[in-house]
């Protein structure tokens, strides 16, 4: 994951680093500053687990760790990588998902940075 540029964000101090967490079997929550995006948990290309994806907070994009397909988190459109369907992005965040607990410490694959 990459941190959003502090110069592009108003207010003091650096912008918080984007986070991705699994909230249900089918959905991930991507948090970039005050913005929250609920999206499909698996890449439409080869079902890579997006909770381990890299987020570009400046461009509002997520990149799958499996084959590097990149998706716009506003529209779900693929912006680079192997041809595939769009990523399902939900507009509304249901209240019960907003209070989901953070991931457990052992929830990272071997060799992946947290």
TrEMBL record:
Region spans: Disordered: 1-22, 95-114
UniProt keyword Zinc, yes or no: no
Domain Rieske: 1-90
CDD domains: Rieske (cd03467)
Keyword terms, alphabetized: 2Fe-2S, Iron, Iron-sulfur, Metal-binding
Keyword Cell inner membrane: no
Listed name of the protein: Rieske domain-containing protein
């Amino acid at each position: 994951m990459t941190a959003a540029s502090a110069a592009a964000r108003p207010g003091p101090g650096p912008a918080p680093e984007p986070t991705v967490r699994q909230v249900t079997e089918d959905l991930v929550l991507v948090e970039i500053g005050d913005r929250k995006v609920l999206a499909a948990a698996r890449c439409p290309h080869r079902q890579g687990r997006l909770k381990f994806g890299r987020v570009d907070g400046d461009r509002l994009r997520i990149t799958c760790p499996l084959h590097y397909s990149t998706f716009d988190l506003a529209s779900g459109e693929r912006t680079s990588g192997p041809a595939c369907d769009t990523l399902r992005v939900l507009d509304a965040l249901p209240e019960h998902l907003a209070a989901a607990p953070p991931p457990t410490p052992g929830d990272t694959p071997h060799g992946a940075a947290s």
